[in-house]
């Protein structure tokens, strides 16, 4: 089923009776070439690119709940490539370029909206840091603009410029950044993977990994044993749990990251804005609600809910930047389980178990990385070699000391 203006017109005339489900309710087969554990954005993107670019379609995606029930549906939908370090910029810029053609690629409206990402700065030192980041971005061919206070004010006059506790001095803008619709991204990848023969198996929790002679042989699930030549883990905050089934200990901690949405209002926040004097970011959804978040909860947890203390801190940051938020009602909040690596950067690599591959450690960058994560992980699963854009994301960098120290690590890296 292809979406087009003609298909919309045809189904409108026929009473909307011609639409079909986006993917099959597949039953597990005894054996697959590749099993991807995790039916979120990263797992589904991996399966999609395996089938599309590498011709590997005998693939199963196993999800313990329903498609997109984990972090894919529990984030603030921001996409950007405004990183500082050379290990990260090429990867996230690859992801941004994939975002820019994603809807045409898998023929589904993911509501990709490049309205810009603006990072505010409030001091001379912070301005200098943003100059450095912007220059690093531009050296890698990524768009970056340093804005003055007056330029920021023209762009976002509703911010507190006159009575702010932390006066706004300017900002770093990436115009190509923005947002996408998280559930639509998942559905689009699921639809595209299914159309290419991938089995998407929901309500199928992995209970154990079968390893024979140091080689992965399959998985044990709530729906029976499923054999496989290769197994890829893309389970976000549960990476440590699944890796433990193979006797592996990962340099990862799991924390809750909360997000919040207000009642719907008329269009106000055109792009994404981040507060430089605290950890706070905000955008406006297509339904009119303001979507925002901030810091992690300060203690490890697997609970998909957050603490009042962290919410209070996020609200304080928001009020300091944009006092009008105090007049809005918060409708709901949610929490995603973040797999925080010790240097704030992800891991895409083989594991010491032959045939077992790891995609983890996404920290705050998971959603925006979805297309590039899927493409590079698919490359690794299909060829056995690291993709050029993910060469820096080796698992052994923590032992060798070649870390990529972007901000965003867990709270207690000293324990590792």
Can you offer a commentary on this structure?
The protein has 416 residues and is α/β, with parallel strands linked by helices. It is built from 10 helices and 18 strands. The protein has helices at 5-13, 41-54, 89-106, 124-139, 149-155, 182-195, 239-244, 308-321, 370-383, 397-400, and strands spanning 31-37, 59-62, 78-79, 117-121, 145-148, 170-174, 178-179, 199-201, 206-212, 215-221, 224-233, 252-264, 272-275, 280-284, 289-300, 330-341, 347-350, 356-360. Strands 1, 2, 8, 9, 10, 11, 17 and 18 form an 8-stranded mixed β-sheet that branches. β10 and β11 (224-233) form a beta hairpin. α2 (41-54) runs parallel beside α6 (182-195), α2 crosses α9 and α3 packs across α9 (370-383).
Keywords:
globular, 416 residues, eight-stranded mixed sheet
Short description:
With 416 residues, the chain is of the alpha/beta class. Helices cover 28% and strands 27% of the residues. The radius of gyration is 21 Å and the shape is globular.
User: Please, how many helices?
Assistant: 10
What is the helical fraction, as a range of percent?
25-40%
- Give a count of the beta strands, DSSP E runs of length 2 or more: 18
Sheet with most strands: 8 strands, mixed
Give me the Rg, rounded: 21 Å
Give the terminus-to-terminus CA distance: 49 Å
State the shape. Answer: globular
N-to-C series of helices and strands? HEHEEHEHEHEEHEEEEHEEEEHEEEHH
Which segments are poorly predicted (pLDDT under 50) over 5 or more consecutive residues? none
The class by helix and strand makeup works out as: alpha/beta
Q: Indicate the proportion of strand residues.
A: 25-35%
Overall mean confidence score, pLDDT? 94
């Amino acid at each position: 089923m292809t979406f087009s203006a003609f298909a919309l017109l045809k189904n409108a005339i026929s009473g909307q009776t011609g639409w079909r489900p986006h993917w099959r309710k597949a039953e597990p087969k005894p054996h697959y070439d590749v099993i991807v554990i995790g039916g979120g954005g990263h797992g589904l993107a991996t399966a999609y690119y395996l089938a599309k670019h590498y011709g590997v379609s005998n693939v199963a995606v196993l999800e313990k709940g329903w498609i997109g029930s984990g972090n894919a549906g529990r984030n603030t939908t921001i996409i950007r490539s405004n990183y500082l370090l050379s290990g990260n910029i090429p990867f996230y810029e690859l992801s941004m370029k994939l975002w820019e053609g994603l809807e045409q690629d898998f023929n589904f409206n993911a509501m990709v909206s490049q309205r810009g990402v603006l990072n505010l700065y409030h001091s001379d030192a912070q301005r200098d840091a943003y100059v450095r980041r912007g220059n690093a971005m531009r050296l890698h061919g990524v768009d970056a603009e340093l804005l003055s206070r007056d330029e920021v004010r023209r762009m976002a006059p509703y911010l507190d410029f006159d009575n702010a506790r932390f006066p706004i001095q300017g900002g770093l803008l990436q115009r190509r950044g923005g947002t996408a619709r998280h559930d639509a991204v998942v559905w689009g990848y699921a639809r595209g993977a299914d159309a290419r023969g991938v089995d998407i198996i929901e309500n199928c929790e992995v209970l154990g990994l079968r390893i024979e002679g140091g080689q992965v042989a399959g998985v044990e699930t709530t729906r029976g044993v499923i054999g496989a030549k290769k197994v890829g883990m893309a389970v976000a905050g549960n990476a440590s749990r699944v890796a433990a089934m193979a006797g592996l200990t990962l340099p990862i901690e799991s924390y809750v990251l909360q997000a919040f949405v207000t009642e719907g209002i008329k269009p106000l926040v055109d792009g994404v804005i981040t507060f430089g004097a605290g950890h706070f970011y905000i955008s406006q959804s297509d339904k009119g609600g303001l979507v925002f978040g901030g810091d992690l909860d300060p203690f490890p947890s697997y609970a998909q809910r957050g603490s009042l203390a962290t919410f209070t801190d996020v609200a304080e940051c928001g009020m300091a930047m944009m006092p009008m938020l105090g007049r809005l009602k918060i409708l709901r909040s949610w929490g995603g389980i973040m797999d925080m690596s010790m240097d704030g950067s992800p891991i895409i690599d083989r594991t010491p178990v032959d045939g077992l591959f790891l995609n983890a450690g996404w920290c705050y960058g998971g959603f925006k990385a979805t297309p590039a994560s899927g493409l590079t992980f698919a490359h690794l699963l299909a060829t056995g070699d690291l993709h050029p854009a993910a060469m820096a994301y080796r698992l052994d960098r923590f032992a060798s000391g070649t870390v990529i120290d972007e901000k965003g690590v867990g709270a207690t890296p000293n324990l590792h």
